[in-house]
Specification:
The structure is a single chain. The chain is mainly alpha-helical. Helices cover about 95% and strands about 0% of the residues. The protein has one domain. It is built from two helices and no strands.
Length: about 120
């Protein structure tokens, strides 16, 4: 083999080796870029999920607080209405009793009770 053929062969070997090395490096760089992008995407998704979860918790907390306040207001209104009705019944009963005590039949009833109590013994 002459020197030109050897140089040509050497050049082809160097080109082949450099192409293989270049392809390996390019593949490695692409894998690193892809890995980096996937990692950043995962971190971004995790942050967004965390923010979403916090918002959901805040909304649930606000909702539960509003429900609790509504229930407390309803219970208070029921208790107030119950007191009002009891007072109204009491006042109505007092008025009916007062009206009854002004009638002659109450006087007769009272006299009969006294006579039965003290004159039967």
């Amino acid at each position: 083999m002459n020197i030109d053929a050897k140089l040509k062969n050497f050049e082809q070997s160097l080109n082949k080796i450099s192409n293989e090395d270049y392809n390996k490096i390019e593949q490695k760089v692409e894998e690193e870029i892809k890995s980096s992008i996937e990692e950043e995407l995962s971190e971004y998704e995790a942050k967004k999920q965390t923010a979403y979860d916090k918002n959901v918790q805040k909304i649930e907390k606000d909702f539960n607080k509003k429900i609790f306040n509504y229930e407390m207001n309803c219970k208070k209104e029921i208790i107030d209405e119950e007191k009002r009705i009891k007072n109204q019944i009491k006042n109505d009963a007092i008025n009916i009793l007062k009206q009854y005590t002004l009638k002659a039949e109450y006087e007769q009833f009272l006299l009969n009770c006294i006579q039965n109590r003290y004159f039967k013994n």
